[in-house]
Amino acid sequence: MTSLMDEIVSGGRGAADNPQFPHAPAGWTPQAAREAAAKEGLELSDEHWEVLRALQGYYARHASGVVNVRALHDALEEKFHRSGGLRRLYLLFPAGPVAQGCRMAGLKAPAGATDRGFGSVA
User: Fold this and answer.
1) Which of 18, 116, 16, 101 shows the shortest CA–CA distance to 59?
2) How far is it, in rounded angstroms, from Cα 32 to Cα 82?
3) Is the model's pLDDT at 63 over the cut of 50?
4) What's the pLDDT band for 66 if we cut at 50, 70, 90?
């Protein structure tokens, strides 16, 4: 079954050409996100795409400074509170909504988002 988001992002269009991802980093495409997700055993749903847009928007708003992992974590909790908050986001991104989500969104995870000894901490 093809979702509405799949139809919107299909065709490998660049982020600059895709109004669904107005804050996507240069060179990022929805196809790149699908490929990254597949490598990690995920199939992106509409909920995943919503999180990726939120991450890209957050980074765009904080482009002038360093992104703080705790502040980003809190922003995701607040934005997705009604749909289950971080508990739901960890179901979508089992390796961590910040670390794994940033990889799918074409963003560099903030310092402290991953701990190679223990996995994702954000």
Assistant:
1) 101
2) 29
3) yes
4) confident
Of all residues in the chain, what percent carry a pLDDT higher than 70? 79
Fold that domain 46-113 belongs to in CATH: Arc Repressor Mutant, subunit A (1.10.10)
| Cα 110 to Cα 102: distance, rounded to the nearest angstrom | 9
Structure tokens at 25: 């980093």
- Domain chopping of the chain, boundaries: 46-113
Which residues, other chains included, contact 24 with Cβ-Cβ below 8 Å and sequence gap of 6+? 15, 16, 18, 56, 105, 106
- The two tokens of residue 102 are 């940033």
Query: What's the whole-number mean pLDDT along residues 53-69?
Result: 91
Say if CB 9 and CB 24 are below 8 A apart.
no
Measuring CA to CA, how many Å separate 82 from each of 4, 8, 23? 22, 25, 23
Instruction: Give every CB contact of residue 102 below 8 A, 6+ residues apart in sequence.
Output: 55, 108, 109, 110, 113
Q: pLDDT (tens digit, 9 = 90+) per residue, 77-92?
A: 999 999 999 999 999 9
